[in-house]
Amino acid sequence: MAGIGLIVPVMPSLIQQLTGEGIDRAAMLGGWLLFAYAAMQFLFAPVIGGLSDRFGRRPVLLATLALLGVDYALMAAAPDITWLFVGRLVSGIMGASYAAANSCIADSIAPERRGAAFGMLGGAGAAGFVLGPAIGGLIGQFGDRLPFIAAAVLCLIGVVFGLLRFEETLDPAQRRRFDPFRSNPFGTLVRMARIPLVIGCLGAIFLMQLASQSQLSVWAYYGTLKFGWTPAITGMTVALFGTLLVLTQGVLSGRMIARFGPVRTATVSLSFAVPSFLILAFAPSTPVVILGMVIGCVPGMCFPAMQQLMSPRVAEDAQGELQGAIASVISLTAIIGPPMMTGVFAAYADDRGLLFPGAPFVLAAGLMAGSVAVLVVTLARHGRGEAAR
Do the beta carbons of residue 384 and residue 263 sit within 8 Å? Predict the structure, then answer.
């Protein structure tokens, strides 16, 4: 996650450098780069999850991390936008390995404590976004390609650490045969649809993550156009939000789940997302944006709570399949979201028409309201079992 965060602040200027286009066109191209990344994750997350169910988590994680490092190094030398697109396709395939990483939690943690563990893992990812954008924004001032080199180095460090310290979590007795008909996004989702609570939570996750694509897709462009942010300021705001997510996901989510249960934690925390996006949409200044970010970190507790509810409903030898399904749903939103959100942004970023850079966040608020509704109905019907108490 630190590697991904490193390149966020420099993407607008790098795209403009490679294409010679303005900020509105660069935003559209940035959205298609995210689309390319997400399309590969959508297709390959179930494959990698299935491979980790068959061969174990350790070899899959180490191999994908090593190849991701090579890919970042190649993107650092990109001579044109086509090369950058190819690099993002490869990054999407390798980045789908977080399905295997999440499966490590289910392998080694009791069901009633998985929410806290999922939260800590999410907090670790958010910590990567704390360091990544901050460092990327700073070193990006000396060259738009330097953050890609730094990301490659981080991947290499991760591989070395994994070889030395990371032990396999999946017992050989719990492994299953790799089935290509199951290990694809459609087969995986069909199997998950047989479990009402899981498919309902996946629906809520879809709407939630689709709304979140507004931040991932247009944040740098929004700040640049509305407030004149530099790459360093953009990096610092992303790092601040990452810090808040570290606190909510990594620290508070486990405590809230233990005290109030996963059902209440999921529904109440997610409801904070709607006002957060509306504040971002109409913020008149950077301090008000920060207020919206503070409120917007509270929904970070929702995802670990939902994972605690879903994981015990799935067989132990299919935890990788579940995480692959979750990853595919998230990746599907990243396929749909960037073109949609950057398209909305571009439509309202042209000073020849209505100038409203916050327009994508209004759409996001509506999507989040739908997510809250789906989650409330699902948990009211199916969330009162053993895992919810």
Answer: yes
**Nearest C-alpha neighbor of 340 from the set 41, 38, 7, 23:** 38
Name the token pair of 180.
Answer: 């290509």
CB 295 within 8 A of CB 276: yes
Q: What is the CA radius of gyration of the chain?
A: 20
DSSP 251: I
pLDDT per residue over 143-180, tens digit each? 888 888 888 998 999 999 999 988 888 888 888 888 88
Q: 319-347 vs 98-108: helix axis angle to the nearest 10?
A: 140
Count, residues in the chain: 389
Residue with tokens 């990698």: 48
For residue 341, the one-letter residue type is: M
The ranges assigned to domains in the chain are 2-166+182-388
Please tell me the class of the 2-166+182-388 domain: mainly alpha
pTM, two decimals, is: 0.79
| Closest to 272 measured CA to CA, from 193, 211, 314 | 211
CB neighbours of residue 142 within 10 Å: 9
Contacts of 25 (CB under 8 A, 6+ apart): 19, 346
Tell me the two tokens of residue 164: 């030395």
Instruction: Report the half-sphere exposure of 101 (CA within 13 A, side-chain side).
Output: 20
Of 358, 345, 351, 230, whose CA–CA distance to 288 is shortest? 358
Backbone angles phi, psi at 68, to 5 degrees: -65, -40
166: left (phi over 0), alpha (psi -120 to 50) or beta: beta
pLDDT tens track for 15-36 = 888 888 777 778 778 878 877 8
